[in-house]
């Protein structure tokens, strides 16, 4: 598993260090130190696979010699505590080979250091550890003064900024992840601190075997000891709480392999002994959920936390999908539609259906729209209808530019989800039952974040509208929440393309949306919009030529250049700006110090804001044109027509705005696009970049990246959709998704999270036990015998997993899901209530009544596996729910069924119910004995014996109850090998209780 390591330190005389000695060690060379008049000889050092000095423009050629360079650095610095050089060290993914790793380091060093004016001494080390695994990394020594033809000048204080280091860390992560994607390597790194990622581990420096040997010679012993101490503390944390490791691994991926786990533990432990203990702790943890083997034969896992998060998400979405509290009145709908028509906006049939859907009474609405189908326009009409009905409408999206696109396209005041959650954490901007929350580009929202938002909205009684396309850019964090919610609850789809003007382009967009990437690319090629060049460099030049010609021919048209990597964006921005400078379209240059380094800006320049700022009302990705600029101030006319003036010492997150990465494009719509494709793209990015235009696109590639069009299509058709842990227990679309990823095992998470043993059913008949989270007033005891003779739930006395039944389900046609879960619950309750009323008259149920109950049960179980089992448990605990649901008021029944499902899969909640029921029976028994009613007491004792015997079928529950012996009236400290069920049976008073106990032993 690729790891993130990026550290920066200063080499200075105050620590007694020499720049010449440091350079000699890192390059494994022998260098003479003029200041100390001695040689530093490290020629015996192994593992250095690449060494070079990279000079910025204008630097003297003599500095290409390592000894000359660093001796001159030493001679330039006079102070005894002088800072001599800055060293950057970063880990190279071991998934790469040596040429790939060297090229990765070279490209990054040139882009981030050399172009800023630093001289970089780059050395790539490829050490092999004691575990026989490669530990590739790079050391980069950087000069700290400006350099010209005469040599070194003043020190550049701007290079010492703390925020610059954080920028380098982020850019390194981006650089690595793009290259990993280009090489089709399934690994990613994260530049954020462990704390920022919510990982409860300490950050560690990377210490390779060479550094370890230095420790043996007394060199850098303190640093090595610190590293090992941190690694040991992290290993101890993992051993004490294995969930720390599992939560860290599942931060970006819902499922993971055994190799991912091993690499993570190796990184965060010290020595083989601790590694073995940490691996054993994680593998033995109840929080580790094994899913089976994937298509490559590797074990695949997830965490209990991920499963529980998905369950909470499912519960919140189901409750909202069944709740009906936000109907928009008809007058408001009609007024909004009339108002839109007055502005020239006439909704299409699909848009009108989506409008009716989102303004309906359900608290959860889902709209799936292909790119360019006018989702924002439809939402603008819906916003007016909501507001006319008295609702407050809010909009959020994952990125600032997507939030801005939603606001501009629909008029819904929008912000980022992170900003909204920050407000909630500080008690501000909480949702209420009068709120409608629109989440745009919902396909990019990870499972954990989606769960937090939907759970908050469900608790507040708010309505949520999810809008997006699961086939476009994938979530950055783990999971595919939007896809999963849509698959479960359905929604409205908008497929009529409105952005493109040509019919064949609309067809191409539909091809991209449905995974037929090759057909779309061939269509654009047939119309002369796919351009091949011999090299990527030539493709880049061809792109700028076409862009320049097109903008001069049609100056009133909007256009944008798109590509996959930040490095390519930088290059294309410079090339486009040079063309405008040559055409005399720009004013005088002003050199501006931005967070990305020095940039020349001029009036007329296109500029992109790179950080959200609410006071300026700009987002990360906002585009504009510079009106005035000098070294202190800038005024920009944003593309939405606002004039923004600011001081450059307060806001420096700027860059040129001619080109952008694909991730900046999902909310963009322009007349024409120009795209440079690279090997890191997949079908999701291709879908986005080929659907931003209205009129046309010029799609460029180099044959050094793609040998021919066939290879281009194969690469750009790669499927990289993210998964959910729950994907591996479905039998419908999600199961097919899992199979596409190479997962070929059968029953997955459902069997893992359920108790291994059977569940006790029917043992609480006649008891009124409260359900978790319910406040309903007590109801009368159920009518005795009302369930007699009924097959309530078909699984009442069957194992949790019934393969025969599952196989039958797999081949049965799926019923229509009209009304969703709540409708199925109400139909089941209606069928059950009809039988109950028939029995109350002393008549056996009619055949058609039993058939209706069977069909209703099958329909419920098709929507919610084991739904009838959970619903029957809810009906036993609250019989009044049957009549409520039968009369069309099934919301409380759905809640109770959810609670029963949680109890069924959670042994700790089942233990709570068992203890409560046992204690209630104990009290009832004591009261009956005290009153002399021994016959009733015997019946109660029989119930207690049935409860005790039920533990034979639920070993997991019995294990948990072993920790609660005292609450059950048993002695603590009894033999752990004994059965709690037998002990409970033996504790039942009266001879009949002991007889039953003996019966159990027979």
TrEMBL record:
InterPro entries to which the protein is assigned, alphabetical: MobA_MobL, P-loop_NTPase, PIF1_helicase, TraA_Ti
Record Gene3D superfamilies: 2.30.30.940, 3.30.930.30, P-loop containing nucleotide triphosphate hydrolases
Residues of the signal peptide: none
The keyword Phosphoprotein is annotated on this UniProt entry: no
CDD domains: DEXSc_RecD-like
Coiled coil: none
Domain MobA/MobL protein: 17-217
Keywords, sorted A to Z: Conjugation
The keyword Membrane appears for this protein: no
Family indicated by similarity: Belongs to the MobA/MobL family.
UniProt-recorded name of the protein: Ti-type conjugative transfer relaxase TraA
Organism: Sphingobium scionense
């Amino acid at each position: 598993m690729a790891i993130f390591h990026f550290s920066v330190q200063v080499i200075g005389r105050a620590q007694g260090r020499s720049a010449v000695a440091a350079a000699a060690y890192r390059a494994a060379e022998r260098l003479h130190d003029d200041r100390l008049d001695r040689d530093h000889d490290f020629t015996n050092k192994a593992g250095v696979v690449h060494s070079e000095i990279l000079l910025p423009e204008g630097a003297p050629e003599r500095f290409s010699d390592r000894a000359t360079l660093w001796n001159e650095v030493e001679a330039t610095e006079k102070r005894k505590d002088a800072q001599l050089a800055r060293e950057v060290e970063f880990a190279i993914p071991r998934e790469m080979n040596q040429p790939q790793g060297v090229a990765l380091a070279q490209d990054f060093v040139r882009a981030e250091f050399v172009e800023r004016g630093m001289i970089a001494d780059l050395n790539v080390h490829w050490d092999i550890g004691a575990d026989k695994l490669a530990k590739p990394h790079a050391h980069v020594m950087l000069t700290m003064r400006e350099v010209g033809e005469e040599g070194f000048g003043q020190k550049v204080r701007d290079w010492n900024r703390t925020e610059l280091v954080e920028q380098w860390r982020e850019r390194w992560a981006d650089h690595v992840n793009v290259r990993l994607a280009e090489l089709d390597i399934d690994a990613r790194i994260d530049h954020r601190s462990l704390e920022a990622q919510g990982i409860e581990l300490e950050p560690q420096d990377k210490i390779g075997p060479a550094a370890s040997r230095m420790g043996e010679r007394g060199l850098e012993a303190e640093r090595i000891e610190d590293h090992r101490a941190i690694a040991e503390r992290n290993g101890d944390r993992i051993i004490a709480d294995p969930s720390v490791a599992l939560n860290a691994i599942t931060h970006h991926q819902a499922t993971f392999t055994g190799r991912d786990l091993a690499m993570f533990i190796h990184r965060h432990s010290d020595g083989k002994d601790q590694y073995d203990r940490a691996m054993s702790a994680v593998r033995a943890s109840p929080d580790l959920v094994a899913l089976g083997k994937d298509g490559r034969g590797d074990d695949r896992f997830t965490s209990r936390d991920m499963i529980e998060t998905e369950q909470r998400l499912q519960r919140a979405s189901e409750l909202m999908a069944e709740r009906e509290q936000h109907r928009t009145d008809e007058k408001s709908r009609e007024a909004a539609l009339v108002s839109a028509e007055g502005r020239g906006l006439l909704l299409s049939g699909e848009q009108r259906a989506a409008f009716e859907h989102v303004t309906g009474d359900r608290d959860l609405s889902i709209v799936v729209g292909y790119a360019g189908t006018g989702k924002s326009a439809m939402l603008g009409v819906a916003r007016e209808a909501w507001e006319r009905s008295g609702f407050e409408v809010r909009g959020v999206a994952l990125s600032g530019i997507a939030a801005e696109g939603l606001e501009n396209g629909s008029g819904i005041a929008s912000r980022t989800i992170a900003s909204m959650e920050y407000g909630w954490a500080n008690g501000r901007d909480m949702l209420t039952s009068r709120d409608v929350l629109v989440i745009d580009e919902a396909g990019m929202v990870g499972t954990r974040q989606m769960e937090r938002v939907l759970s908050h909205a469900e608790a507040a009684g708010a309505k949520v509208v999810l809008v997006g396309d699961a086939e476009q850019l994938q979530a950055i964090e783990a999971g595919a929440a939007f896809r999963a919610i849509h698959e479960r609850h359905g929604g409205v789809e908008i497929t009529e393309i409105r952005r493109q003007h040509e019919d064949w382009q609309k067809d191409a967009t539909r091809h991209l949306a449905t995974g037929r990437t090759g057909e779309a690319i061939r269509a654009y090629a047939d119309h002369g919009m796919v351009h091949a060049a011999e090299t990527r460099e030539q493709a880049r030049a061809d792109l700028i030529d076409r862009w320049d010609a097109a903008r001069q021919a049609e100056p009133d048209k909007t256009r944008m250049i798109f590509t996959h990597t930040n490095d390519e964006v930088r290059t294309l921005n410079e090339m486009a700006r040079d063309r405008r400078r040559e055409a005399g379209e720009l004013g005088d240059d002003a050199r501006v110090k931005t967070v990305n380094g020095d940039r020349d800006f001029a009036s007329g320049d296109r500029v992109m804001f790179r950080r959200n700022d609410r006071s300026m009302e700009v987002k990360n990705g906002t585009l504009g044109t510079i009106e005035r600029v000098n070294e202190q101030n800038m005024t920009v006319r944003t593309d939405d027509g606002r004039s923004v003036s600011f001081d450059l010492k307060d806001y420096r997150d700027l860059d040129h705005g001619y080109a952008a990465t694909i991730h900046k494009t999902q909310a963009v719509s322009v007349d024409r696009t120009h795209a440079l494709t690279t090997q890191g793209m997949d079908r999701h990015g291709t879908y986005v970049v080929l659907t931003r235009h209205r009129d046309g696109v010029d799609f460029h590639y180099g044959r050094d990246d793609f040998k021919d069009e066939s290879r281009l299509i194969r690469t750009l058709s790669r499927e990289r959709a993210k998964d959910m842990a729950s994907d591996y227990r479905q039998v419908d679309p999600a199961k097919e998704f899992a199979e596409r990823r190479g997962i070929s095992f059968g029953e997955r998470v459902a069997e893992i999270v359920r108790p291994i043993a059977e569940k006790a059913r029917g043992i609480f008949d006649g008891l009124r036990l409260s359900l978790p989270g319910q406040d309903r007033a007590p109801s009368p005891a159920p009518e005795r015998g009302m369930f007699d003779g009924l097959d309530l739930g078909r699984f009442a006395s069957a194992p949790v997993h019934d393969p025969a039944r599952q196989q039958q389900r797999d081949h049965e046609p799926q019923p229509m899901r009209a009304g969703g879960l709540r409708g199925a619950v109400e139909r089941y309750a209606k069928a059950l209530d009809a039988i109950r009323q028939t029995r109350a008259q002393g008549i056996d149920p009619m055949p058609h009544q039993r058939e209706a109950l069977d069909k209703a049960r099958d329909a419920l179980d098709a929507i919610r596996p084991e739904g009838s089992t959970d619903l029957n448990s809810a009906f036993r605990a609250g019989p009044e729910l049957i009549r409520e649901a039968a009369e069309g008021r099934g919301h409380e029944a759905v809640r109770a069924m959810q609670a029963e499902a949680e109890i069924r899969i959670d042994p700790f909640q089942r233990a709570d119910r068992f203890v409560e029921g046992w204690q209630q029976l104990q009290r009832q028994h004591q009261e009956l004995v005290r009153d002399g009613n021994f016959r009733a007491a015997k019946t109660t004792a029989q119930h207690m014996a049935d409860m005790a015997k039920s533990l034979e079928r639920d070993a997991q529950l019995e294990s948990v109850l072993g920790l609660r012996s005292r609450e059950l009236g048993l002695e603590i400290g009894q033999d752990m090998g004994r059965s709690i069920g037998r002990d409970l049976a033996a504790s039942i008073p009266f001879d009949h209780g002991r007889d039953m106990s003996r019966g159990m032993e027979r």
